[in-house]
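User: structure tokens for this one?
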Amino acid sequence: MFKKVLISLAMFILTFGIGIGAGLGVLMIINTRPDLHPAAIISRIKGETPANEATQTQDLEATDAVFIDEEQLPSVTDSAQEVEAGAKENLKILVLNATGVAGKAGTAASSLEANDYQVVETGNAELEYEAGTFIYQKSTNAAVESDIAAALETTLTPSDAVAEEDADGVYDIVIVLNE
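Assistant:
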């Protein structure tokens, strides 16, 4: 009889402990993810904005400010220096004209060469494109993209479809002009 009571008590304590552990785990998740709080869920179901949303945003901004050391963040100047130090002249660039107006690719190539890029080839695009200037990079580099956009005085739209113009994969960057 004593053995049964002891086993029952042990099972009760084990069940109680598992319940407490699971409950604490759920509370920890809710506290780290305010969007999972029951009040926030009910507000979203009703289509309302949670009353504490602004407070949560402020709390997150304050937390971010504690952990971000602005001295360690790269500046725009650092990115431009990375492009220069990365030897622009080693990038193989293909510039293609999709406008139908003769000389657009040549003019763009001259602008790039004036900014120390090596334009390997110019020509006409084989595919059809929407209006715009498109770029494909084998290895995406935002600093290079920004530098090229500045050299061409235009906005570049990244596009994997442009890679089809370089079927053999010879070029590091393919630019298609269609504006």
